[in-house]
Amino acid sequence: MENNIRKIGVFTSGGDAPGMNAAIRAVVRACTYYKKDAYGIMRGYEGMIEGDLVKLGARSVGNIIQRGGTILKSARSEEFRTAEGRKKAYENLKAEGIEALVAIGGDGTFTGLHKFYEEYRVPSVCIPGTIDNDLPGTDYTIGYDTATNTAVEAIDRIRDTALSHNRLFFVEVMGRNSGYIAINSGIAGGATGIVIPEENMSFDQLYNLLGADKETSKKSNLIVVAEGSKIGDANTLARKVAERSSYFDIKVTILGHLQRGGAPTYFDRVLASKMGIAAVEGLMQGQKDVMVGIKDNKIVYNDFNTIMAQKHHEIDSESLRIAKILSI
Ligand code: F6P
């Protein structure tokens, strides 16, 4: 492995995700293992612009693998979108002698870092950390498994009360433009219907799933709605059903940010640990403008331009097929 790089900066940016701390820990400990200095950059690009850097050692990342959120804090920086902002950031890194970067975040984070690489040629590796699982080039992003498990737990609880009162519940889950959390929490939670942006389900098709006009109709129903739904959010869909039929006693629950917190699952901790080490080793091998991913359980390095050209992480058709059969 090439060993020229001596100081590596690590930061988290965009929406936090459970497992980010495990990734920070892995990056810092891999640096220690390979005798590199690790610097934490606080609040993502904001801290880079302000020069808010903190030296990290193996012990400073103890007792964080199980914690949600991010010890480095996170932000969405408007200033880094400007050339002046990026110049300030570069000058701060240079002043501290930081020669390479590891970013943990989502597509907004990576787009910023790619631009930065093109301008200043600071070797950079991105680690996909977002609950949305919306990045191509990896089967899983850090935080997605935890968030989906959290959603399933919530759906199970809602089901108890839905059944007790014969109610129709619309449960809205996060995911931005991606239906990953919805499709898999919906399948695992036994939802009657799952509304995701990737599938062209019409409102009529959804309404028919409820079986309001049939004698066989279910007494209680639970519909999982992805926040990126193209036929309306949970409140809108609930209102439209109520307008069409008085058969249902309807309630809406929006899970929101509770899906972002909490202890990461074992899966996210291990994924984050693998990716954190891979990021440092990638830099040592000369990777420069890439995103680490996991494909068929193997670490891969994706060229940034290839990733961005793909735009979206498709939902596999098998999941859609399964959801359809089970909603009968
Ligand atoms: O990208 C992660 C995510 O939680 C999305 O699922 C959601 O749409 C968004 O961030 C919410 O962002 P914020 O925390 O800024 O409201």
**How far do the termini sit from each other?**
55 Å
Q: What structural class do helix, strand and pairing data support?
A: alpha/beta
CA-based gyration radius: 22 Å
What is the CATH C-level name of the largest domain? Answer: Alpha Beta
**Heteromolecules bound:** 6-O-phosphono-beta-D-fructofuranose
CATH architecture of the largest domain: 3-Layer(aba) Sandwich
Morphology: elongated
Task: Determine the fraction of residues in helical runs and give it as a percent range.
Answer: 40-55%
Nearest-integer average pLDDT: 95
- Helices and strands, in order, run as EHEHEHEHEHEHEHEHEHEEHH
For the secondary structure, the number of strands is 11
Reported by name, the CATH topology of the largest domain is Rossmann fold
* Low-pLDDT stretches: none
Q: Quote the beta fraction.
A: 15-25%
Number of domains: 2
For the biggest sheet, the summary is: 7 strands, mixed
* Count of individual helical segments: 11
Spatial arrangement of strands, main beta sheet:
3-2-1-4-5-10-11
Polypeptide structure, described:
- The structure is a single chain.
- With about 325 residues, the chain is α/β, with parallel strands linked by helices.
- The chain folds into two domains: about 180 residues, Rossmann fold (3-Layer(aba) Sandwich), CATH 3.40.50; about 110 residues, Phosphofructokinase domain (Rossmann fold, 3-Layer(aba) Sandwich).
- About 40% of the residues lie in helices and about 20% in strands.
- It is built from eleven helices and eleven strands.
- The strands form two sheets. The protein has a seven-stranded mixed β-sheet, sandwiched between helices. It has a four-stranded parallel β-sheet with strand order 7-8-6-9, sandwiched between helices.
- α6 packs parallel to α11.
- The longest helix is centred in the middle third of the chain and has 22 residues.
- 6-O-phosphono-beta-D-fructofuranose binds next to loops.
